[in-house]
Structures are given as C-alpha cells and as structure tokens.
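Entry 14. Structure prediction run on the chain below.
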Amino acid sequence: MTERKLSRRGFIKVGAAAGGGALLAGAGLHEAVGHAATTSGLPSFEGPHQAMVLAETTQATALVSFDVVAGSRRELQDLLRTLTARMRLLYRGGLPQNDGPASPLDDNGILGPSLPAQQVAFVLGLGASLFDGRYGLASLKPARLSEMVSFPNDNLDPARTGGDLSLQVCAADADTVIHAVRDITKHTRGAMQPRWRIDGFKSPPRPAGTPRNLLGFKDGIANPDVSDADAMRRLVWVQRGSSEPEWTAGGTYQVVRVIRMLVEFWDRVSIGEQENMIGRRRATGAPLDANSEFAAPDYANDPHGDRIPLDAHIRLANPRTAATGENLILRRGYNYDRGVDANGNLDQGLIFTCYQQDLERQFMVTQRRLIGEPLVDYVSPVGGGYFFCPRGVQGATDYLARGLFA
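Output returned:
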C-alpha cells in the first residue's frame, strides 16, 4: 500500500506539470457540440441506466482499468465530470473544438476532421479501492463490492487485476475504440493513469446464431432476456430500499475476468471429450440431449448425467433449478488475441464480463459451483476485477457517479 501511494504522489507531480489544467478545460467541451443524427444501433448516451450493460455487444472493445491519482475529493469529482463530458462528446460526434493554431489540438485526428456520430459507447465502473481513505467515500461503498477474489485454478497477475475505475469502450471498429481511449487518457492526465488494458473482438455468427469463443463453442446462449424488464430489475439493477447505499440504485455490479485459453492443448482433445466438458454440440450449440441451440437441457430426466455429464460446464454454471434461477448473471463476452507469450505459446482467450444485482448471490455462487470442473485444465483466469457501475446520466449537467457527492 505504501508503494502505491508513493507512486501516486510521484505521478501527480509529473501530471500537474504536463497537463494540470486538462480536467477543468475538458469539463465543458460537450456544450459546444450539437446532437448529431443517429447512424448506428448504439443506445442513447442518457438514461436511467448505463445503457451498454443491456445493449448488444459491439464488434470491438477495450477494457481499461485505471488507478486514480487525483489529490482530493474535489479533484475526483472534477475527474468524473470530465470523464462524462468526454464520453458525451465522443458519442455525439461533430467538429472538435479548435482554440487556434498555437493551442494543443483537442482531437487526435484518427477518425478524420469530424467525429462520426453515435459510433462509440461506454461503461464506467468503480472499484473497491476507490472507497479507501483517500476521498472520504468509505461509508458510501456498495455493500457487495470487494477486491477480486482468486478462486482455485486461477492464476491472477496483480499487474492485470483490480483498479479504482474500469472503463469499457465499445464500437464497431477498432480505430474508433483506439481514438476514444486516447482522447480520454489525454483529457484525464494528472487525475488517473492506466493500470491494465485488454482489447477484444466479437466473432461473427458461424454459420448463424450465437457467436463462438476461441474454443470453437457458441458462448452466451442461455443469457437472461434483456427485454424482460422484471427480470432485469430482479437480476441486474440495484433497487431502492435494498441494503445498498441510496446512490447505488439503478446501478449494477460488473465482473471482468480475463481468461486465457490454452488453445494448443485444447486443439489436441477429441471432439467428444470437448463436448462432454462443455455440455453442448460444438457444431450447433445444442445441449447434448437436444437438437436446437436454444433448447433447454432436461436435467430432471438425466439425473445421473448419462447424456450431459454432471460436471459439464453448462450444468454446473446453470443447474436450472428453482433456487438457482436467482443466481443467473447477464454475460457479455469478447474474444482476445495478444499474440504469443515469452515461451512462444499463443496468448488467446475470453474477456468474460457479466453484470448482476448482487455480486455474492449471483457471480460468487455460480463461480464456486465451477471449482474443479474438467475445463480448468484448458483455461487460466489471469486478471480482471470487480466494479460497481453507477446509474446513467440524465440531463446536460449530470455526470456519472454524481451520487457520491450529493
């Protein structure tokens, strides 16, 4: 902890000299940019919730974790205002602000002279470490928020785990994601610094239906129905009147697990063994006891696991009993490919992201059921974190996590 505080103080000194005025300068930039016509299927920037939680995953993404180095509670508030302002500006698009040839450029130019409208969206989360003694927020910490837990068979790298803030950037194109990450890091320099980052992509449906992960199986078939408002209130969004602090209402818990897949070993396993470990047909995505991708497996008529093994991934993750219906999570996964590691092995895998109303009741309970499953010989969780995503913004003066400063 001491080393972390010292590094923060050192960075503040450097950041203040390099761009100390960036926060206040960026806070009002969105006011100069008008609304642009909708040109994509991305959800509205404003609303009662952060809309990308329920929205369809985009083709490209970056998940970036940050350590906050703001020197005071007021500077943290300025940071959250600036973050929201930059997100709003990037979402709306239009001509970047230009203060003259002698001033630093407001935009990095990757997307051309004018920003395309509604081509990028975001999810912002707050880590448990933000609620330590630095900013006087301990009493406002979400009730279930904690540092990331290392389960048996995990291989978490501290350098790629945790963080004060998480930011997911979502777009159809990789250059749009890169543009947004650079814009936000530039305009928040001196208040937060990247801790770790991973880029992901969504594979197209092959040949149809749910996209596949890099093990070759369709991933995310049995998600809750996001169009069912009652289910979302029960499973995803924190409700008023619960044991949570009042400001958390309308928010949700985010889990990020960067799961490396040991693909060279997996590719040497027979198709029958792979399917038994997963519990589905690789070609179609159907449960081993059915013929349709979206058919519900019939565990009641297979009590001994003759058709779907008792330790198959889908059976452990979702036993489909009345009690475990309250453990359901909303999954939002992306594939990743980071080339090769120091030993020449392929570094590929899954950015597992999920959302839930209650971190303990849903994700933790589900993950404990998966301890020791056969699949652990072929996957290795190496990083990620737990975060709380506050409710959305409503109105031009609102900003994310404003409830912390009410």
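The first helix runs from residue 2 to 19.
Filed with the rest of this week's runs.
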